[in-house]
Amino acid sequence: MKNIAEFTHYTFFTEMSELASRHQSFDLSLGLPDFDIDPRLSDFLKEAADLQYHQYEPLSGNPLLIENIIRFNAKRTNKIYLQEDEVSIVPCATFALYTSLKCILNQGDEVIIIQPSYYTYGPSVVLNGGVPVYYDLDHDFTINWGKLQKSISAKTKAIIVNSPQNPTGKMWSQSEWNQLYELIKDQEIYLISEEIYDTYCFDGIEHYSSFIHPQLKERTFCIFSFGKMFHSTGWKVSYMLSSKELTAKFRCHQQYISYSANAPAQYALAKYLEIFDPSENQKLMQKKRDLLNTLIKDTPLSVENISEGSVFQIVNFRNVSKTMSDIEFSKWLTIEKKVACLPLSAFYTSRQNSDYIRFSFAKKDELIIQAMEHLRQNL
Prior knowledge:
Blueprint: H1 12-22, E1 26-27, H2 39-50, H3 63-74, E2 87-90, H4 93-104, E3 110-115, H5 121-127, E4 131-136, H6 145-151, E5 156-162, H7 174-184, E6 190-194, E7 220-225, H8 226-229, E8 238-241, H9 244-257, H10 263-273, H11 278-296, E9 312-316, H12 326-335, E10 339-340, E11 342-343, E12 356-360, H13 365-378
Parallel strand pairs: 1-10, 3-4, 3-5, 5-6, 6-7
Antiparallel strand pairs: 2-8, 7-8, 9-12, 11-12
């Protein structure tokens, strides 16, 4: 069993960002957008201040925001139909993940984490008394259902899934949610489904939420992020979908941890959802993905699997170095070649090396162009 002390160190996310700043590198390491939010969203935030939205919202969240979340999800191509008592406004996706686990875990319960995965998953399990069980995706970042089934034990209490996935850009289809349900249907296993990049799905692929599955819905905490949707991560407002019963459990813990989320931002987001066009979001980010991948072709780096969703692209660097670890290569690229990235092994507990690095394309076009041109000339 992992001790939380094993997680208490600077992550590569922090280290690589600091290296990029120190060496004045083109920073494609983190998923933080460097471009402005929609000015209309800013205007709604100013309006919230003028209307005196300065006090706590209800535990469940701003009623108008909940109403507009329900409307927004009903308009998706793959529609999600919701009731008010299935929607919770939360401070952030990490909070939702942590508090969801707190609702369901007892000491020693196991939670399956599909790797590569975001670095907060393991610590959130351990802090709630659980035991992380890591399942590694196959070499092409697909699921081997037989291997995943072997990761399930009598102690398994939850599985954490991320789709579209950070860092691989892979997306779960309806068929895959069906297969997951078949694996867990005869056991009390919950699903934590982080779907925070839901509006960034490319090449005509539509997001398919776990919450559409009629049986999974009853055992799922499904997490979304306005920070990711609207390039406003510092606003700290997300939302979570869960059944009426799980929502009641969740709020029992939420009231003692955060109570509610940022009140002015909730109002602004509610108003913005009324005019938000998700297709514009999708087009913006796909254009950036395509720009990055087109320019990479003029470098020795290689894209083997084009990102299906999210704001990240995995890139093979072995044409440049056969001997460096991905950590060594990432630091070398950041310091010596002035383009910051993340090593894929930063998303594993089971690996110290890989053939891949991750770039973020949630950046201004000029930064992507400058970074790739710099690599074209210097690699």
